[in-house]
Automatic annotation (TrEMBL):
It comes from Sphingomonas aurantiaca. The lineage of its organism: Bacteria, Pseudomonadati, Pseudomonadota, Alphaproteobacteria, Sphingomonadales. This is Uncharacterized protein.
Length: 82
């Protein structure tokens, strides 16, 4: 499925992966929940330094990929429908 065909109204969760010494100790802080489109717009309004460690997830799994972070998150932000 292409990014433009994503179900922008689906529920999504935006989390921040908190830094730790090991991958097993990494905690996730839930920042926001809402529609995929609303969360991507919120991310777009953030400064680049604020985006570090963000992960956007579609918990219901209706669209693939189910998780976006780093480059895939940036690509999703750039593809917001007008």
């Amino acid at each position: 499925m292409m990014v433009m065909d994503f179900p922008w109204t689906e529920r999504a969760t935006l989390v921040r992966i908190l830094k730790s010494d090991t991958a097993d100790q990494r905690a996730k802080e839930v920042l926001f929940e809402g529609s995929l489109l609303d969360l991507v717009k919120r991310i777009r309004s953030m400064r680049a330094t604020e985006r570090h460690g963000l992960r956007l997830t579609l918990p219901d799994g209706h669209a693939r990929p189910h998780t976006f972070q780093a480059e895939s998150l940036s690509a999703l932000v750039e593809s917001i429908p007008e």
